[in-house]
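Supplementary Note 3. Input sequence used for the single-chain structure prediction.
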Amino acid sequence: MNQEKIGKFISEKRKEKKLTQSELAEKLGITDRAISKWENGICLPDAGTMPELCEILDITINDLFSGEKVDMKENEKKLEENLLEITKMKEEKDKQLLNLEIIIGIILIIFFLGVITIALSINMPEWLRLTIIIPDIIIFLISCFFLSSIEQKAGYYECGECHHKYVPTYKSVLCAQHMGRTRKMKCPKCGKKSWQKKVLR
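The predicted structure, written as C-alpha cells, is reproduced below.
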C-alpha cells in the first residue's frame, strides 16, 4: 500500500471538489494538519474517518486504498490486493507491539529486581526501605497491566480445541493462567477451556 500515492490521490480529489485542506478538515471534524499528513503520505486516515472522507470525495474505500479510481472490471482483484496489504500491515504492527512488550518486560524486571536488591542489601532504616520497595512494586504492577493490554491487542489467540482465532477481552487475558504467550482461556465459539497460543494471523 503506497501511502504517498494515496496522499496524492486524496489531494487531487479534494482539489477536484474545490475544497481547501481547512474546509475538508472542518467537514470531517478534524484538524487541517491531519489532512496535510495524509496528503504528504505521512499517515493514512483512521478507519472511523474513511467512510465520510470517501463520501465527501465521491470515491470508494477501494479507490482510496488503491490511490486511484478503480475500474469496475478490476474492482474485485484490487479489493483482494488491498485486503491482503491491510492484513500484512496489521501483522507487522502486531509483531512490533509484541517485540516492544518483550523489551519493556526485560527492562521492567531488571529495574524491579535491581531496586529490591539494593533496598535489601544496604543498611538503612525500615521506613526508608519500605519507601523504596512499595513504589517499586506499584510501578511493577502498573507496568504489568500495560503489558497485558499489549498482549490482548496484538494478534489473536487460537483455541486448542476448535482452532477458532479471536481477540479475547482484557479481563480474560489478565486473569488467565499462562506460560509465556500461551494462556488457558475459554473459547467464545466452542465454549471449551484450553491452552490457547498467540498467533499473528
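The beta strands are 156-158, 165-166, 177-179, 182-186, 193-199. The CA atoms of residues 152 and 170 lie 6 Å apart.
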